[in-house]
Specification:
The complex is a heterodimer of chains A (294) and B (291).
Chain A lengths: L5 H29 L3 H4 L14 H7 L23 H31 L5 H11 L4 H15 L5 H25 L4 H8 L4 H12 L1 H17 L2 H6 L7 H6 L2 E2 L2 E2 L1 H21 L4 H5 L7
Antiparallel strand pairs in A: 1-2
Helix pairs in contact in A: 1-13, 3-13, 4-7, 4-10, 5-7, 7-10, 8-9, 10-13
Chain B lengths: L10 H26 L2 E4 L4 E4 L3 H8 L1 H32 L6 H9 L6 H11 L6 H8 L13 H29 L4 H8 L4 H29 L3 H6 L11 H10 L4 H26 L4
Antiparallel strand pairs in B: 1-2
Classes of the chains: A mainly alpha (294), B mainly alpha (291).
Chain lengths: 294, 291
């Protein structure tokens, strides 16, 4: 922007790296705990740089040699629980993928209409969708718990998938609408004049043009389902649990299994890290529900 | 063939699945919740019984509710202010094409995808009184004695929780503000430079007004999430020590699921919902945010 002296550029570089290092530190430290033996985790002063790395925590959490739950448990951890997490990781993946698919399907259809067709009350409809984003999860979870209990959806994949899809719908609808809005409406209109049906135009012309937008929306939906806590905590009991909820059970009255928890947490972060790097281009638009474009 | 309102040329059929799921999962639960707020679970009868307005009058006279509301507002003001101010500062710092800054911006996005419950655990570890890194640093710097455990001292616990939130979501503000900064037109800055305006003056008179909309959207979206915050307190303090870190969401959840006060929990959650809807819509109206 402005011409700056060499020394002020130096200062900016140093401060920039220092600030980002401060933000990266908790992640780095968490990773070191995942690779530490128990006695090194509890060291005072805390061991930040020098420790003997081990993959013992990962073996404990995922079963020996990463057999996804088929290995022998080597020792009883604090709390005495079963900390083999392969199946819980599977629960997380199933719920995140299916709820994302459901949210994207519903949102893409609706946002096409919201972007392309004029109708009375369209603005109010968008406001309604946005206002569902304002509902505190607890105000949804309480009634849904009792409704699920009555209709037998408590502690089921279907129940959690539906509620995660619902949670992601405002984001998905508003974001997809912004991607549809980017494509000029004349394309649809000239195809309509040529006699193509709305459905054909949607499938063959418009949908292929928003592929990137769908991918970005899907990644964000996946991440929000992957990291969601309150609904899974409330609506599941023993049948299934996702990673964030099950890691909170590692804190027990007889101690916290920090190593196992860090290993599980680290494993849960990696897919999300990879996904977020893939959608950098649309990240800000996604986080602001389509209202700020990069 | 005449399909009328169900024709693909009309919007209704396209929006039908969305309308169906929104009615099933927001409208019906909302009415169920309202119905629930006029009932309470009677342990001896093992059933809900109507109690009229009792839950709502209890809400107004419940000191713990007012304390939780106060905690929620304090948390909301401190966290949101910190995230906006720090976010703007860091965005201005990183808004350059110099070598390495693209990498720095990418690293910052990583905090956003960690499950908040795991962030809570991360800070539980960092703030641990026996072996936490932050405890060590504060102790070594003479700021806070090791004998004062951050999360189990009433005066510091909420600040310990706020730190986790600020750490995770300041990068959210940074990214949004950076996108805003990059879309600014160059002309006003050229004019300001010709006039010899100072950097502070340029920021206050040009950058801030031009970023108005972007800042409003960021505050709205983050503000909603901060006000209904649950994960960090649930994992880090469960409302303790004593009742010093109860937020409205946590209090409502605990009344329902730990103390079997189904009706009162529903009342509390509706109260939280009402505050968010009113304040957020007022903000949208005043700040003229449009979607």
């Amino acid at each position: 922007m402005m011409v700056r002296s060499k020394s002020s550029r130096m200062v900016r570089t140093i401060v920039g790296w220092a600030v980002v290092a401060l933000f990266a530190f908790p992640l780095y430290y968490w990773m070191t705990v995942a690779f530490k033996e128990g006695n090194e985790i509890f060291n005072w002063p805390p061991k930040v740089w020098s420790f003997t790395p081990t993959i013992k925590n990962f073996e404990e959490v995922f079963g020996i040699s990463f057999g996804f739950g088929f290995g022998e448990q080597r020792e009883v951890l604090p709390g005495g629980g079963n900390f083999r997490m392969g199946p819980r990781l599977w629960d997380s993946i199933v719920i995140a993928i299916l709820s994302t698919a459901l949210a994207i399907t519903i949102a893409t259809l609706a946002s096409y209409a919201l972007s392309r067709m004029n109708f009375r009350g369209r603005h109010h409809f968008v406001s309604w969708v946005l206002s569902t984003r304002m509902m505190p999860p607890v105000a949804v979870a309480i009634p849904i718990f009792f409704i699920y209990k009555d209709i037998g959806l408590l502690d089921t994949y279907t129940g959690v998938i539906l509620i995660h899809a619902l949670m992601n719908l405002p984001l998905a609808v508003l974001l997809m609408k912004s991607f549809f809005d980017d494509i000029p409406g004349e394309i649809d209109e000239s195809a309509l004049v040529d006699g193509a049906s709305r459905w054909l135009i949607f499938r063959r012309i418009v949908l292929p043009m928003v592929k990137g937008g769908i991918a970005a929306t899907a990644v964000l939906c996946f991440i929000f389902s992957w990291t969601e806590f309150l609904f899974v905590l409330t609506l599941t009991q023993t049948g299934l649990k996702t990673v964030p909820v099950v890691s909170s059970t590692f804190v027990t009255s007889t101690g916290t299994a920090w190593g196992s928890m860090a290993a599980l947490g680290a494993a849960a972060m990696i897919p999300a890290f990879i996904f977020i790097l893939l959608v950098q281009k649309h990240l800000v638009r996604g986080l602001t529900l389509g209202s700020v474009k990069q | 063939m005449k399909l009328g309102v169900l024709s693909p040329d009309r919007p209704f059929i396209w929006m039908l699945p969305l309308i169906a799921i929104l009615i099933a999962f927001t409208i019906i639960p909302l009415f169920y919740n309202i119905w629930l707020s006029f009932h309470e679970y009677a342990p001896f009868k093992r059933a809900l019984e109507p109690v009229g307005l009792k839950n709502w009058s209890l809400l107004l006279s419940d000191e713990r509710m007012w304390e939780a509301l106060g905690t929620t507002i304090l948390y909301f003001v401190v966290v949101l202010t910190a995230e906006v101010v720090l976010g703007m500062g860091i965005a201005l710092l990183l808004d350059t094409e110099e070598f390495g800054f693209g990498f720095l911006r990418t690293v910052l996005t990583l905090t956003l995808v960690v499950p908040p419950a795991i962030v809570g655990m991360m800070y539980l570890l960092i703030e641990d009184p026996e072996f936490g890194v932050l405890t060590y640093v504060l102790d070594a710097a003479g700021l806070l004695d090791k004998a004062t455990p951050i999360l189990s001292t009433a005066s510091t616990a909420l600040w310990g929780v706020m730190l986790a939130d600020i750490w995770q979501w300041t990068p959210f503000m940074v990214l949004i503000f950076l996108a805003g900064l990059r879309s600014l037109p160059p002309e006003p800055y050229e004019a300001a430079m010709l006039d010899g305006a100072s950097a502070v003056m340029t920021f206050r008179r040009i950058t801030l007004p031009l970023l108005n909309k972007v800042i409003a959207v960021a505050i709205l979206i983050r503000g909603i999430d901060v006000f209904r915050m649950f994960d960090y307190v649930f994992v880090m303090t469960s409302g303790g020590p004593g009742t010093s870190t109860y937020t409205l969401s946590l209090y409502a959840w605990q009344q329902t699921f730990s103390f079997i006060k189904w009706g009162y929990g529903a009342t509390l959650s509706l109260f939280t919902l009402a505050i968010i809807l009113i304040v957020a819509n007022l903000f949208i109206y005043i700040a003229k945010v449009r979607w």
